[in-house]
Design goal:
By secondary structure, the protein is an alpha+beta fold. 18% of the residues lie in helices and 26% in strands. The longest helix has 14 residues. The chain is globular, with a radius of gyration of 22 Å.
Amino acid sequence: MMRAVLVAAMVALSACGQSAQAPEDVAPPVTAATSGAWDQNLISLLPFIDACIAKSPETRTITYAAATGEALVAVRLSGAGGAVDCTVPDHDPSPTYAQISPRRENWAPESENTAIFVRGPGENPGGECYEAPEVRDANGAVVGWMLDPEGC
């Protein structure tokens, strides 16, 4: 019945020189789950992020973290000490194996800056503009905050 109404509406619109898409042809809205943003796996990436922060404690803002497909997890961090890249073996997220290097300007991950995570502990980094949303682990403990990539 609904399909018949939809077809009738499309025929009526086309008679007027307009067109319509069937609902199944309309793209779903982009959400965090469909955007390809790196932070979809944030909680599972925390041990790798923490290994990098252990080697570079002044860089607690994360703009990218993901498996490279080459048995490594890459993390891009920034902070008072500037911006750095870090790689950690995907089988051992200990600081012992974390490698810090200056930020590579010739490397731009596709989903970098789609999400910005500030690792706790600390104060909410939202500033005067807004309250940054908390990120909590499976036990409910605050592990950091998500900043708005657009800023204030």
